[in-house]
Design a protein that fits this description.
Chain lengths: 661, 531
């Protein structure tokens, strides 16, 4: 048996912190590696040691194998834990780690390599008698063969990049006529994303569930599984809510699928933690999809229902310990749900959001676990995945777990950063989620043009506006101890005082009159409110609005107030100044960056004539590329940026003179 | 300092009765103040709004710092007269602009084109005086057609004071900023013309000595008003305007910006921590007598105005018809002199001594007037009440610490003088709605008149016509009563405003802030005291 006294974690964020937690419990020292962008990150502070590996982009940092192995050498680590993503499924890296004398906490390089290819893994599984999704993954990549194969499989079909993942290069084709164009587009995308354009096609299921099984294998030929996870709630092919047990499995089906999962593991002599993904169709047929050769993001739901620490077993197996015999007797107890908190805006097609987290306050509640990579003061920037934390709720049954999760999400305060928190809440409240009849199209089906209705509810917005006004009042009166200076007193009252805020694109004018004893008469759009400010702390504000006492959390950054409403979550109220500064007003014809990011490509030259709709600049942010298009005809008058440069949100990129001028 | 222990019983019948009477007076005041907000007939307001212009009071509200207090001065000037209405065509007051105390004035362009009637001129002059005395910068929001021509005889001569005062303040380092929103013609053109900073609003400001018709009459030159005196011309060619504002809001923004960089040395203000009074200010209505003939203890009022209801009384056991002592209001130290009855010789001497002490210690003074006069009669004349009163008037006259006077009841006779009446130039003077101001009470006045008439009749050997006498007496009484009324006084600008007694502390808070704007320095000497 090999000794592991120090582990280097080749990852960042919440998963790095998660691995460190088990290491600490096992008395193992931890080493973090971090990029320049992460120098103040939470996981760096929690590690026993940390090595700067420089760089901002993943390719210069967390994907740089030499730098990471060198960090392990410098710190004298015994083993490397890859987490998920980054190098976790990179066979070359596994090999390099092993060659350099480090224990790689995961399966062998061979298994990682084979399972990394969709077509090869499928071939192997077919040989082992495992049901796979009908499809074609031959070497002949001609359009004709794709057409005949598609007809054989039956439409609709799914086109995928053989080397792909994460939804890149995926296309659904419903009709023979569309196939040629789709194949060409998918090839281009595959080439640019993965450096090779080999495609495969598969049967596409209109209604299917994504069920996966947690596998473990040791170096002594023992295999076990820790039951399933239901991962059908996905947006853009990424999971956002997972749970265990699945509401769709009968005990018989569970047993059958579990046995298949073990068969998968034994067919490839799998070691360490892995996940077998299945598609479960409407008729309860299941098909092998792939094996993820790593710890999954959603592993906590398994831990919460089985009581097993999966990271601990990973380390034990890596040391050479055999799997405990009594793992065979593990059973699922209660129900666990995980919600992934993404820095993104569900209302704008899940566009990634960046920013500073002003307040991050996880409510301490019974049965709620947080796996978070951030805290108050953390910065979420453009370089890495926008998944920043996970909430796991454990209940005696599914209803209770959902109820607890809702409560936790409502009380969870995240200010300063746009997240999918309210979107998660709406999913949890959806009847189709409640009765378990959902499938992988759930979000597309029910939340196609999602808008957060709480964010447009005028009674909630009014309350938010009132809180913004009270908070501003307090700040002004707090600047001087002189109660004679700031009190809005009038001896001959003429009109209300006022503050104006932009809340979700709505201009809200709060008209108010200070009475005394911290009470105000407030009018918003002809609605009257009697408001008493009860207490205002550093970030808390408690007030009575028309006899209803409520607590809010408030944080201010520059001219923006971030307000947590007790039932509707976080809001941003931008202060609209009474006087606009003439000099800083927008340049006509100026184009601004919609978000912080890197200028990937500049598509126009100075003096170039452009027509409306022409792409001007491509910005990359959080793994997403956005093209800024001209919204009117004109001539490129000024360019303020260069390729490869980084810009903040609202930076003016270039200026186009309109043709009328 | 010790706590003033209240002896008021809000359950008592006399308190309740008085409360209702005072409440009536306060409601009457509120209704009168409401009328002072008039800014012109609906059709003019509508037209103003359509052209995107703000009203005078809206301009003031926008110019003020958010949540700044605003003390409107002389809101009832001209009330009861035959001018353009309550408050005239000018709104003026004190508030904070870019964190500095200022005087703000605005012509009400929607009443008679903002032309100046006689009360408006008087108001302007008084506000100008307040600015100079307290070192307050002035921001004028100009839109005025100039002197109301039918009033010209009353206005023309003293009107020049407005322009003289602008430059005299400037000479003392107190700037005036004018934003011109509309017409500013003839004499009115000298308001922006004399100001330290002038902002003109594009397409709206029209500033010229003579408008196109008069120019045509005088020289036969034909010219339109924009070319003759528009904002653009004055900003680009004549230089009468320093800043060209794109619109009204921009003009106000520029004025705020100028205020923020003005290098006016603001005096370091030494304040203690503010403590609110212990007792409810609402009770002021129950304790201050609605009828000035009924005495009340001034300490009860003081207890509801000063910080923590704490008062350090000076000579409490001597001359007890005058209450003197030190207190703190909103953190500022102040010496209070309040009447608790007729002035006797001892009371006058005590007052004289206290005024001297405040001057020696550079402490401002607050006079709470409720005085029917000095005691009369043989005994008092013999003990020289005239010379004792004269000492107090001497001290008040030569006192150089700022004073604030509030008439809380009667203000009769020489008592008005000794207690720092209008002629003795307190920095501010306010009246309660129940207050009376006259040479003496109306009953005394008509009674004296009756005695004189009877004497005259007797001397002439004629029979005194009882019926006619009673009629005349009644007429004199009601005339005297009317002219001693607080509103009449305010209309004549004998005070700076009639105030809701419950708001006394709020008024004093801002007034103290204002008087601490300049150095507080007591008198070095007095006139000869007759001993």
């Amino acid at each position: 048996m090999k000794a592991i006294k120090k582990i280097l974690i080749a990852n960042r964020g919440e998963i790095a912190i998660r691995v460190m937690r088990t290491c600490r419990e096992m008395g193992i020292a931890t080493v973090a590696v971090y990029s320049d962008a992460d120098k103040d990150a939470l996981f760096v502070k929690q590690a026993d040691e940390a090595i700067s590996i420089g760089g901002l982009q993943a390719s210069d940092s967390y994907l740089n194998q030499e730098k990471i192995i060198n960090a392990a050498k410098i710190t004298g680590a015994d083993a490397i834990h890859p987490g998920y993503g980054f190098l976790s499924e990179n066979a070359g890296f596994v090999k390099k780690c092993t060659e350099a004398g480090f224990i790689f906490i995961g399966p062998s390089a061979e298994v990682v390599e084979v399972m990394g290819s969709k077509s090869r893994s499928k071939e192997i599984m077919q040989k082992a008698g495992i049901p796979t999704v009908p499809g074609y993954n031959g070497k002949d990549q001609s359009i004709d063969i794709f057409i005949t194969e598609s007809e054989k499989i039956g439409f609709p079909i799914l086109i995928k990049a053989a080397a792909g993942g994460g939804g890149k290069g995926m296309r659904i084709v419903y009709d023979k006529k569309e196939i040629a164009a789709s194949i060409e587009a998918a090839k281009r995308e595959a080439q640019s994303s993965f450096g090779e354009d080999t495609l495969l096609i598969e049967k596409y299921f209109e209604s299917a569930k994504h069920i996966e099984f947690q596998l473990f294998g040791d170096h002594h030929g023992n295999y076990t599984h820790f039951f399933e996870r239901e991962c059908s709630i996905q947006r853009r092919f990424q999971k956002i809510i997972e749970e265990s047990p699945s509401p769709s499995l009968t005990p018989e089906l569970r047993e059958k699928m579990g046995k298949t999962a073990i068969a998968v593991a034994s067919s490839i002599k799998y070691t360490n933690a892995g996940t077998v993904e299945f598609i479960l169709d409407a008729e309860n047929n299941f098909y092998f999809l792939e094996v993820n050769t790593r710890l999954q993001v959603e592993h906590p739901v398994t831990e919460e229902t089985t009581g097993i620490d999966l990271v601990r077993i990973q380390i034990e197996v890596a040391k050479g310990m055999p799997l405990k015999a009594n793992f065979q007797n593990t059973h699922q107890q209660g129900h666990a749900i995980e919600c992934r908190i993404y820095a993104e805006d569900p209302a704008t097609n899940f566009f990634p959001a960046t920013g500073n987290i002003l307040i991050w306050n996880e409510p301490h509640l019974n049965g709620i676990r947080y796996d978070s990579g951030v805290a108050s003061g953390s910065k979420v920037d453009i370089y890495y995945d926008p998944m920043i934390a996970k909430i796991i709720a454990k209940g005696n049954n599914r209803e209770e777990a959902i109820q607890k999760m809702q409560n936790a999400l409502e009380k969870f305060v995240i200010l300063g950063l746009t997240t999918n928190k309210n979107f998660l809440l709406e999913i949890l409240q959806h009847p189709s989620f409640g009765d378990g009849t959902f499938d992988t199209h759930f979000i597309n089906k029910h939340f196609k043009n999602y808008t957060d209705t709480k964010k447009t509810d005028s009674s909630i917005i009014n309350e938010v506006a009132i809180v913004a006004m009270l908070s501003e009042w307090n700040e002004r009166s707090g600047q001087t101890d002189n109660s004679g200076r700031v009190n809005g007193w009038r001896n001959n009252f003429y009109q209300n005082n006022w503050s104006t805020f932009d809340i979700g694109g709505n201009e809200i004018k709060v008209e108010y009159r200070y009475k005394n004893n911290n009470s105000f008469d407030i009018t918003i759009n002809d609605k009257n409110f009697k408001v008493e400010s009860v207490s205002i702390g550093n970030n808390s504000l408690e007030c009575i609005i028309n006899n209803h006492r409520k607590s809010f959390v408030v944080a201010k950054s520059k001219e923006e107030l971030f307000i947590h409403h007790p039932t509707a979550g976080s809001f941003k109220a931008s202060i609209i100044p009474r006087f606009s500064d003439v000099l800083s007003s927008e340049k006509p014809g100026g184009y601004k960056a919609p978000m912080p990011g890197e200028i990937v490509k500049l598509l126009v030259k100075l003096g170039e004539e452009v027509v409306s709709g022409k792409g001007l600049v491509v910005i990359s942010s959080m793994k997403m590329e956005t093209t800024i298009e001209a919204h009117s005809d004109g001539i490129v008058e000024e360019i303020f940026i260069t390729e490869k440069s980084f810009v903040e949100a609202n930076t003016i990129l270039l200026k186009i003179s309109s043709q009328e001028n | 300092m010790s706590l003033i222990k209240t002896k008021i019983n809000p359950q008592s019948e006399s308190y309740q009765r008085n409360y209702l009477l005072m409440k009536e007076k306060v409601i009457e005041l509120e209704q009168t103040m409401q009328k002072s907000l008039f800014q012109g007939e609906e059709k003019y307001l509508e037209r103003n709004k359509k052209t995107g212009k703000l009203l005078a009071r809206e301009r003031i509200e926008l110019l003020l710092d958010q949540d700044s207090p605003f003390l409107e001065l002389l809101p009832l000037a001209g009330i009861g007269g035959d001018g353009f209405g309550i408050g005239g065509t000018l709104v003026g007051g004190i508030g904070f602009v870019s964190n500095r105390l200022c005087i703000l004035t605005a012509n009400v362009g929607t009443i008679k084109g903002g032309s100046i009637d006689y009360p408006t001129l008087q108001k302007n002059l008084r506000i100008s005086e307040i600015a100079l005395e307290n070192g307050l910068p002035v921001i004028n929001l100009v839109e005025s057609a100039g002197a109301n021509l039918p009033d010209q005889a009353k206005i023309f001569n003293y009107g020049g004071t407005i322009f003289r005062e602008i430059t005299r303040r400037s000479q003392k380092g107190i700037p005036t900023i004018s934003i011109v929103f509309g017409n500013s013609t003839a004499g009115g053109a000298y308001v922006p013309g004399m100001s330290d900073y002038t902002i003109m609003v594009k397409d709206q400001a029209k500033v010229f000595l003579a408008g196109p018709p008069l120019v045509k009459m005088a020289t036969n030159e034909v010219v339109d008003d924009e070319a003759l005196g528009g904002a653009d011309m004055h900003s680009r060619i004549s230089g009468v305007s320093d800043y060209l504002a794109v619109d009204e809001k921009d003009g106000i923004r520029i004025a705020r910006e100028i205020m923020s960089f003005l290098n006016i040395s603001e005096k370091e203000k030494v304040r203690q921590k503010t403590v609110e009074p212990l007792y409810n200010f609402e009770e002021i209505l129950g304790l201050v007598s609605a009828d000035v003939r009924i005495p009340f203890d001034a300490r009860e009022l003081i207890a509801r105005v000063v910080d923590g209801s704490q008062f350090s009384e000076f000579k409490p056991n001597y001359g007890n018809t005058l209450v003197t002592g030190y207190a703190v209001i909103n953190g500022y130290q102040i010496g209070i002199i309040a009447n608790n009855g007729v002035l006797f010789s001892e009371a006058a001497n005590k007052g004289t001594q206290f005024i001297q002490l405040c001057n020696q210690n550079n402490i401002p003074l607050l006079f709470l007037q409720n005085i029917t006069g000095f005691m009369v009669g043989k005994k008092y004349e013999e003990e020289g009440i005239i010379k004792h009163g004269a000492k107090m008037i001497n001290a008040v006259s030569n006192s150089t610490v700022p004073a604030i006077t509030i008439i809380i009841g009667a203000s009769y006779g020489a008592g008005n003088y000794a207690m720092c009446g209008r002629a003795f130039k307190p920095r501010f003077l306010f009246s309660y709605p129940n207050s009376k101001i006259a040479v003496m009470g109306p009953e005394q006045l008509s009674g004296v008149m009756e005695i004189i008439q009877r004497d005259a009749a007797q001397k002439a050997g004629a029979v005194y016509d009882e019926e006619k006498g009673a009629f005349i007496k009644q007429k004199i009484t009601s005339e005297a009563d009317k002219q001693s009324n607080a509103y009449y006084a305010s209309g004549q600008l004998w005070d700076d405003g009639v105030i809701d007694p419950r708001e006394t502390r709020n008024y004093l808070k801002l007034c103290l802030e204002v008087i601490h704007n300049t150095e507080i320095k007591g008198a070095d000497g007095y006139g000869v005291f007759r001993m």
